[in-house]
Amino acid sequence: MAHTPKQDGDDNDDSCLVASREQLESFQEDVQYLWCPSNIPIYDEPPSAFDFLRNHVSVSRPCIIRNSIITPETNDDNDNVLVPLILTLDDLVERFPDTTTTTTSSSDDDDDKASSSSLQLPLLHVDVTPDGHGDCLRKVRVNATVGKDDDDDHDNPCESNVIKEEEKKVFVKPLEREMTLAAFRHHLRQGRDKQQRQQQQKKKKGVDISDRIFLEINNSLQQTTIDDDDDHHQVLEDCVLYYSRQNDCLREELSPLWNSKVWKKSSSLKSSENDYLFPRSFPWAEEAFFGGQEEEQKQTSNNAVTTGGPDAVNLWMGDERVVSSMHKDHYENLFMYSVKYSKVHWIATDLFGKDKKKCDDDDDEEEVEEFPLSKYAHPITVKVKAGELLYLPSLWFHRVTQTCETIGINYWYDMNFESPMWCYFHFLQQLQHQKQQQQNDPK
């Protein structure tokens, strides 16, 4: 690094920090070999709070933890065993069917199941997108009004302006529709089956998301594109649906699901807290995040949300067509993926927003030109199997994709802002590229 000295007679301090290509490459190697190698640790059971704090939280290093959410199940020998929690959309619909399809269970062994079925989930706020990409920048073609030259005849006001098409990037949010859980499952699967058949018939690749251009329409037209008419279901099958709410939805909007119990209890389970389908929190994680303060806070109320527990617990539902935008969270993130198939399906989570195929693609020249330092990034691909828990440290940029229909449970714990990491991160956010600074300040 070099320091530009202050010139005589110059009242402005124009000192700056400079990093050469060799220094950036050295920094990249340090990150790769000292901090975050490509193969992150995998634990067969939850680590102790001390090990989790020392090896992961304090150094902001991700890991995968197995058997962190377990539930009792009866095996072939009619014995109760503990297995990782596995949930599907079919399981959720069976627990919370629509009112019109609710039936009363006659089996004495299904009391808990019948109790859950007697409750109803509220309508889901489902995100509807053309291709599974929501909350992201999109290329949009808009009509721009351009004024004529002064020499032109302005006697006719209708001819005083020219309508010209132009493209721009805008941040687009998905359309929200309310529907039941069963309706969401129906439209999700019908849409996937229809789009798979269309792809097989066309026998050609789809257009890359970065190359697609959408048309801008006014709000009145947008409201009528998907409505409760005869074409409503047809339109939904041409879209990609997913459920993603970052507002503590599992404990608030979906509280009947959050408070539901396991269907089959094991006599070996002594704590009533283990009767819940979803754990209220993870003690080993709380102690690592907040120290010993959570024990005192838990004594204030039973099964209530405490300041030592997660700030939010969210549920995510979708399939392989949904791809999240690259983003970061100001939370310590514990994310459990739950799918149920006979074969092992891996969920690829790219912690820096690119998979290997895209990293090796020559089509990224435009992105490298816009963000020249991105070529020094250290992308890591983490594959998470059903029933495994991914610890994603706060402030890590990441993008998530799936390989099949997936349910995810997301526990968010507040990050520690009184730390060197936040200070460094906040400082780096305020730095500007030299060219950008010259554009903003021509002087």
Characterization of this structure:
The chain is of the alpha+beta class and 443 residues long. It has one domain: Jelly Rolls (Sandwich), CATH 2.60.120.10. Helices cover 27% and strands 22% of the residues. It is built from 14 helices and 17 strands. Strands 1-2-15-12-17-11-10-5-8 form a nine-stranded mixed sheet, with helices on one face. It has a three-stranded mixed sheet with strand order 7-6-9, with no helix packed on it. A three-stranded antiparallel sheet has the order 14-13-16, with no helix packed on it. The longest helix has 22 residues, at 181-202. It starts with 20 loop residues before the first helix and ends with a helix. Residues 1-5, 101-109, 220-228, 265-271, 294-306 and 341-363 have low confidence and may be disordered.
Summarize the structure.
Helices cover 27% and strands 22% of the residues.
Using the CA coordinates, give the radius of gyration.
Answer: 26 Å
Number of domains: 1
Number of helices: 14
CATH topology: Jelly Rolls
How many beta-strand elements? 17
Distance between the termini: 25 Å
Estimated structural class: alpha+beta
How is the main sheet built? Answer: 9 strands, mixed
Large-scale geometry: globular
How confident is the prediction overall: mean pLDDT? 75
Overall CATH class: Mainly Beta
Low-confidence stretches: 1-5, 101-109, 220-228, 265-271, 294-306, 341-363
CATH architecture: Sandwich
Helix content: 25-40%
Fourth-level CATH superfamily:
Jelly Rolls
- Please report which band the strand proportion falls in: under 5%, 5-15%, 15-25%, 25-35%, 35-45% or over 45%: 15-25%
Q: Strand order of the main beta sheet, please?
A: 1-2-15-12-17-11-10-5-8
Protein name: JmjC domain-containing protein
Domain JmjC: 267-428
InterPro entries: Cupin_8 (IPR041667), JmjC_dom (IPR003347), RmlC-like_jellyroll (IPR014710)
Region (Disordered): 98-121, 187-207
